[in-house]
Amino acid sequence: MQYRLPVVKPSNPKWIETVMANFSFFLQDHAGCERKASASAMSLVAKYPNRVEIIPELIDTALEEMEHFRDVYKVMQSQGLQLIHEITEDIYVKELLKLCRNGREEHFMDRLLLVSVIENRAAERFKLIYEHLPEGELKVFYHQLWACEAKHGDIFVKMALNYFDEESVYKRLHELNNAEGEILDAMPITGKLH
After folding, report:
1. pTM for the whole structure
2. Is 6 helix (H, G, I), strand (E, B) or coil?
3. Highest CATH level, class, for 13-186
4. What is the number of H-type helices and E-type strands within the chain?
5. How far apart are CA 33 and CA 108, in angstroms?
């Protein structure tokens, strides 16, 4: 069952042109994003240890994101690329996090739903990459990532439904999804995942 919502605004076609024009840069950024995604899932475990219903899934997601980091790094190694030494601020994520409400329960819901929105955008972009890559191992890899990120988009909505009623979850998810489209639309186009 699909729990996530489709992206409100598709990525600008210039984004995929920019990525394909400098795929090495994209790979370096992608590796950093996978590492941060793993850390994000583990930070939810650390921040909400009493939410025992979702901790196993958070741990599994963190491990899966770390596996993605490993796999992207292997691709980088095969191309003679190194990791970027400095982790730059992710303006996209920073703007999304500003949308989190203050109340304890509201903040918890928003954190889960924002991860779904971010994972859903990554899935949309991995699909674009898959469609633009020539036949080969890299194309297969991004096809698998596309499916996996979409699954993660579902998982975090499902987690929220453990604690909140469906109507309030989807009302807020719609709000965050619409805001994400506006945030992305206002940002400059780069060769980064976000």
Report:
1. 0.95
2. coil
3. mainly alpha
4. 7, 0
5. 22
Q: Is the pLDDT of residue 84 over 90?
A: no
Over the Cα atoms of the chain, what is R_g?
Answer: 16
Closest by Cα among 64, 192, 58 to 121: 192
Residue spans of the domains in the chain: they are 13-186
Other Cβ atoms within 10 Å of 91 Cβ, number = 14
Compute the distance between CA of residue 153 and CA of residue 192 in angstroms, rounded to an integer. 19
| C-alpha–C-alpha distance, residues 179 and 131, integer Å | 27
pLDDT of 89 over the 90 cut? no
Distances (CA, A) of 191 to 3, 104, 113: 29, 36, 25
Q: pLDDT, tens digit, for every residue of 92-148? A: 999 999 999 999 999 999 999 999 999 999 999 999 999 999 999 999 999 999 999
Using left for φ > 0, alpha for ψ between -120 and 50, and beta otherwise, residue 7 falls in beta
Task: With a cut of 80, say whether residue 16 has pLDDT above it.
Answer: yes
**Rounded CA separation 174/92 (Å):** 18
Determine what percent of the chain is predicted with pLDDT higher than 70.
99
CA 5 to CA 153: how far, in whole Å? 8
Average pLDDT over residues 3-8: 94
Judge contact between 109 and 71, C-beta under 8 A.
no
